[in-house]
Amino acid sequence: MRMILMGPPGAGKGTQAKVLAQRFGIPHISSGDLLRDAARRRTPMGVQAKRYMDRGELVPDNILLGSIEERLHGPDCATGFILDGFPRTLAQAEALDKMLAGMGAKLENVISIKVPRDEVVKRISGRRTCRNCGALYHVIFDPPTNPGLCNKCNAELFQRDDDQEDTVLARLEVYERATAPLLDAYRRASVLREVNGIGSQDQVLARVLEQVQTGG
Ligand code: AMP
Hints:
- It contains eight helices and eight strands, in the order E-H-E-H-H-H-E-H-E-H-E-E-E-H-E-H.
- By secondary structure, the protein is an alpha/beta fold.
- The protein has a domain at 2-116 and 179-214: 3-Layer(aba) Sandwich (Rossmann fold).
- Bound molecules: adenosine monophosphate.
- The site of adenosine monophosphate (AMP) has 17 residues, from helix 2 and helix 3.
- The site of adenosine monophosphate has 17 residues, from helix 2 and helix 3.
């Protein structure tokens, strides 16, 4: 099954994508994770990308698209994948269409998780990420058992540079400007299914699952 999970930063895409990936036995491909990993390893692509990420801006397609395409050709993607954070613009959606056509594959699900702006800011500014395994926590809504440490691997939790409030507002502005037209296009093509992202992780998961089409 090939699925795109959309939504503003902090909508819970990453959390839901991880669960869905396990449930359907397909990889979770997060463009943000790919870029952060490249930045951490200081690859030329990662170093270039980090400049944009730190400002909350979109990384240009000439930097990003090659690694997405390479990832989609991985053997683990043969039966499907869940894309999280890509595509984010009309141009990226067109590039994705071409990649899929080249693979003889088709997209089954485009699901958007909707969360209002003030809720996004509240969620992201309290978000903490495990430096080792990437598990996500929230200082108020989902705190770790031992403050500052991951429940799963005991490694240190940190706040992403781009989760500071100023950068969150910039990312939201980018979402509204660049990604809204893509949502409109998927809506017009009648492939978009929208779910309410307010509620517990399990409640949102149930709403997403109601919308997932597994046939084909
Ligand atoms: P995310 O983890 O999805 O919130 O992405 C974090 C940051 O990575 C974004 O603010 C962008 O700077 C960059 N990024 C992730 N996905 C994309 C994309 N599809 N196009 C351009 N930049 C992206």
